[in-house]
């Protein structure tokens, strides 16, 4: 039974690691400012009788192109361990900011690229994140609410079957604490809320048999 | 705000008429975190390169158990999908346990695997034999009730039933592998052939992972080419597994090197095909796995049995044992 649980965890780890990371940037960096972040976390799965988050990791670098636009790129470390080169490249663009209310809206268009060294398979999935944030500790902490959307552009899936999932919607809620140059964030996602999670080889912890709940930690250093 | 503070500090130094050295120190202290982070980045990238591709799921995809000293068959008290009543008992004289040598292509030595044959060995020369390929769990004790049930197709011990533990499962030696699955089942077919079985009297039956050797050895026969084949709750491919798990068109090669691809193999199989699948299969989805395999079949005769409310492993019980036996018997006799 333990081995079977390990099997399910491994399957989950790999399948989910391809598409799991917290919001890269909720607030853009200042112009010419740099940031390096380590992300840890993943969806919750049933492990035997327990529930555990999958420890997925990725490393991200970002740079402020202007005070309202930040470019970023990442390397998914868990995927790399399994022979997959995976990155997501994108920008964080501020759409609206209200200084006195400490409120703002940002959008992160990005592209996820994955290449496996074993069979040379390559996939690209566009992603669009939308975030609304509100400062709750002056200059040091904010909460945010948003949607991470992945888009499957292929009309086919395995064995030329028709693909019916074209938009995967993942709402999230997070808190970010930013003392000086460091930033610590925790984010809770409801992954694929628009998709049933049974039947499936992976035993996700979802809500009402839909999607999977994920917990993510993010540590960022600006310089 | 941080940038602004730094600027103020810088201005303060200038205003105080301090030396350029102090200014350099401030500038230097600003660069240190950047250098540290760059070093960390380089270290992580280096580790990523060093350890990249060092893991694959393949060995974790198998789910055997080896914590037994002997097969207990009817006396097995571990978890089982169902337990038959006494009317399905098999005389001890018709239960044969033995070892086989299995050697996959490219292997330098054979692996000893364990087998059970239910029926009269002398009768193999004239009887129909069902080669039962079990699923990805534990060992033959777990599947004994299923093999025993198949020994009642068309009447008690009317047909012989052969079952093996793949390498790495139960008391079979070695380590589970995809090529090992095919070699081990073929070793059983070689033994049947040596005892007088011809392909025209061979029925292949695969459950779950066991559908992989059935499709492989029916599509590309080695020792014997079966007359017909039955797939219960078939696995379509690693691609389907990845698609189901991710919701995206993700290839299976992103997490495994498994080449099992029943959905493609059945396209070129000509032998008559019987498919059984539970409509409530929570492990191998009937829509994404079973229906695809059934639809892709390229031969001339196929029949489908979608079993209402049956989960993975519940097909015979939810159908009713006599109904299940009748369906298998009718298909074999057709």
Description:
The complex is a heterodimer of chains A (223) and B (334). Chain A is 9% helix and 59% strand. With 223 residues, chain A is mainly beta. Chain A has a single domain, classed as Lipocalin. In chain A, strands 1-3-4-5-6-7-8-9-10-11 form a ten-stranded antiparallel β-barrel. In chain A, β3 and β4 form a beta hairpin. The radius of gyration of chain A is 18 Å and the shape is globular. The N terminus of chain A is likely disordered. Chain B is α/β, with parallel strands linked by helices and 334 residues long. Chain B has two domains: 50 residues; 276 residues, Alpha/Beta hydrolase fold, catalytic domain (Rossmann fold, 3-Layer(aba) Sandwich), CATH 3.40.50.1820. Chain B contains ten helices and eight strands. Chain B has an eight-stranded mixed sheet with strand order 1-2-4-3-5-6-7-8, sandwiched between helices. In chain B, α4 crosses α5. The N terminus of chain B is likely disordered. At the A-B interface, α1, β1 and α2 of A face α2, α6 and α8 of B.
Quickly list its features:
heterodimer, A: 223 residues, mainly beta, Lipocalin, 10-stranded antiparallel barrel, 9% helix, B: 334 residues, Rossmann fold, 2 domains, 8-stranded mixed sheet, disordered N terminus
User: How many helix segments of chain B?
Assistant: 10
Output the radius of gyration of chain B: 29 Å
Give the CA-CA distance, first to last residue of chain B.
Answer: 82 Å
Kindly state the percentage of residues in helix of chain B: 25-40%
The CATH architecture name of the largest domain in chain B reads 3-Layer(aba) Sandwich
């Amino acid at each position: 039974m333990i081995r079977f649980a390990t099997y399910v965890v491994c399957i989950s780890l790999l399948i989910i690691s391809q598409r799991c990371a917290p919001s890269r940037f909720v607030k853009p960096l200042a112009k010419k400012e740099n940031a390096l972040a380590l992300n840890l976390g993943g969806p919750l799965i049933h492990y035997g009788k327990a529930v555990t988050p999958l420890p997925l990791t990725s490393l991200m670098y970002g740079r402020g192109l202007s005070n309202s636009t930040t470019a970023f790129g990442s390397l998914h470390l868990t995927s790399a361990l399994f022979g997959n080169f995976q990155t997501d490249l994108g920008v964080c663009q501020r759409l609206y900011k209200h200084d006195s209310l400490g409120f703002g809206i940002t959008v992160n268009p990005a592209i996820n690229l994955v290449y496996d060294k074993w069979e040379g398979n390559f996939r690209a999935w566009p992603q669009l994140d939308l975030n609304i944030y509100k400062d709750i500790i002056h200059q040091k902490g904010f909460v945010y609410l948003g949607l991470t959307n992945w888009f499957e552009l292929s009309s086919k899936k395995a064995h030329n079957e028709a693909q019916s999932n074209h938009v995967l919607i993942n709402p999230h809620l997070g808190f970010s604490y930013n003392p000086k140059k460091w930033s610590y964030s925790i984010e809770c996602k409801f992954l694929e809320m628009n998709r049933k999670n049974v039947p499936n080889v992976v035993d996700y912890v979802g809500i009402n048999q839909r999607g999977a709940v994920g917990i993510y930690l993010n540590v960022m250093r600006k310089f | 705000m941080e940038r602004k503070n730094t600027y103020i500090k810088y201005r303060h130094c200038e205003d105080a008429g301090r030396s350029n050295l102090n200014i350099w120190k401030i500038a230097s202290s600003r660069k240190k975190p950047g250098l540290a982070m760059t070093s960390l980045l380089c270290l992580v990238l280096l580790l990523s390169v060093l350890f990249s591709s060092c893991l694959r799921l393949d060995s974790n995809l198998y789910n055997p158990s080896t914590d037994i000293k002997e097969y207990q068959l009817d006396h097995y008290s571990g978890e089982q999908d169902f337990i038959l009543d006494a009317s399905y008992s098999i005389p001890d004289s018709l239960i044969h346990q033995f070892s086989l040598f299995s050697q996959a292509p490219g292997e330098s030595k054979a692996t000893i695997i364990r087998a059970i044959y239910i029926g009269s060995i002398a009768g193999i020369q004239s009887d129909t034999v069902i080669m039962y390929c079990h699923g990805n769990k534990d060992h033959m004790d777990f599947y004994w009730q299923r093999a025993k049930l198949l020994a009642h197709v068309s009447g008690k011990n009317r047909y012989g039933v052969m079952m093996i533990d793949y390498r790495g499962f139960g008391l079979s030696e070695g380590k589970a592998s995809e090529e090992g699955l095919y070699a081990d089942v073929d070793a059983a077919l070689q033994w049947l052939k040596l005892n007088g079985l011809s392909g025209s009297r061979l029925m292949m039956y695969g459950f779950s992972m066991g559908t992989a050797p059935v499709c492989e050895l029916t599509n590309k026969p080695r020792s014997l080419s079966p007359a017909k084949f039955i797939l219960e709750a078939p696995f379509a491919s690693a691609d389907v597994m990845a698609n189901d798990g991710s919701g995206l068109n993700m290839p299976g090669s992103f997490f495994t090197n498994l080449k099992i691809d029943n959905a493609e193999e059945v396209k070129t199989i000509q032998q008559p095909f019987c498919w059984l699948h539970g409509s409530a299969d929570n492990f191998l989805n009937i829509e994404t796995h079973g229906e695809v395999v059934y639809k892709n079949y390229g031969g001339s005769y196929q029949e489908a049995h979608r079993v209402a409310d049956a989960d993975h492993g519940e097909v015979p019980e939810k159908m009713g044992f006599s109904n299940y036996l009748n369906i298998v018997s009718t298909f074999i006799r057709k």
